[in-house]
Amino acid sequence: MSSQEAGLDLTDHGTEGGWEATAHGSAPLDGVRTAGFRDTAAVGLDLRVIPQPVVVVVIGLGGEQFAIETPAGSMALSSFVAAPAPGPIRVLGDQVECVEMRLSPRSAYGLLGVSTREFDGSPVSLDEVWGRPGQLLREQLADTPTWQQRLALTDEFLIRRADRAPAVTPEVAAAWQHIVTRRGRVRIGELAASCGWSRKRLWSRFSEQIGLTPKKAAMLVRFDHAARALRAGMNPIEVATACGYVDQPHLHRDMLAFAGCTPGVMARGQSPDDARPPSGAAATGM
């Protein structure tokens, strides 16, 4: 399973001391990672999540309501599904205790039972996706005392769903894997030709099953590598070249579109709010 399929953990996005995190020792299914998180010191959650090529399912266990801010507006949810989005998401919560599942778009198609294309880029309530089975899972997890048992219950739930879930077509799976392997540096026409489909047919099937158009998926995978490289200390010029952008302004435009900040802000690990200039000042960035 590639890093693109696995995604990042909550701890990679800025949760600090006072958090208990329990990762799963082994993935229950290909393209799936699960973990448990608890705010043991009541430090609160204020998590700014940049888009990634991964679908996130969060199940709150303590009756808490997550306040979720997106480019489209705000909402309060106790459990939710967040598909790859066109802009950054901010998640806030108090006394958080939750199970998080990170699904590759390829795996999410069957496990969710609905195309993430229907989410329109915004998180949705888990009850709308999994209905009563999801509610029962949340109740069981809340009544289970240890993280090991909770993650085992989650595994069993996902495996049962996978047994009767529809799989993506081989052509779509191959196209997604090619995008991941090439780090988003692909031509959509060549991608269609490689699987023996017309461009129109690939666009339709891929969008339905992965939840993004092939072009948007390639842009998101490329952006994800660029964001990781910037956080690792590479300068924007090097990142633009290494990640296949035409030039630095091209990287700048994609960074603004996906993350709402400049490459320079991303490299410093700041959020767009941290970097916002005082009222009346001119915004600058690399």
Overall outline:
globular
Low-confidence stretches: 1-9, 11-15, 271-286
Helix content: 40-55%
Q: What is the assigned CATH homologous superfamily of the largest domain?
A: Jelly Rolls
Rg for CA atoms: 19 Å
Structural class: alpha+beta
Quantity of strands, as a count? 10
CATH top level of the largest domain is Mainly Beta
Please summarize the sheet with the most strands: 6 strands, antiparallel
CATH topology of the largest domain: Jelly Rolls
Count of DSSP helices?
12
The strand line-up of the biggest sheet is 1-2-9-4-7-10
Mean pLDDT level: 85
Region (Disordered): 1-26
GO molecular function: DNA-binding transcription factor activity; sequence-specific DNA binding
Pfam families: HTH_18
Protein name: Helix-turn-helix domain-containing protein
Kindly list the characteristics that best describe this protein.
286 residues, globular, 43% helix, single chain, Arc Repressor Mutant, subunit A, Jelly Rolls, disordered N terminus, six-stranded antiparallel sheet, alpha+beta, 2 domains, 12 helices, four-stranded antiparallel sheet, transcription
Describe this structure in words.
By secondary structure, the chain is α+β, with helices and mostly antiparallel strands. The chain folds into 2 domains: 3-163, Jelly Rolls, CATH 2.60.120.10; 170-271, Orthogonal Bundle (Arc Repressor Mutant, subunit A). 43% of the residues lie in helices and 18% in strands. It has a 6-stranded antiparallel β-sheet with strand order 1-2-9-4-7-10. Strands 3-8-5-6 form a 4-stranded antiparallel β-sheet, with no helix packed on it. α5 (170-181) packs parallel to α8 (214-231) and α8 (214-231) packs across α10. InterPro entries: AraC_XylS_family_regulators, HTH_AraC.
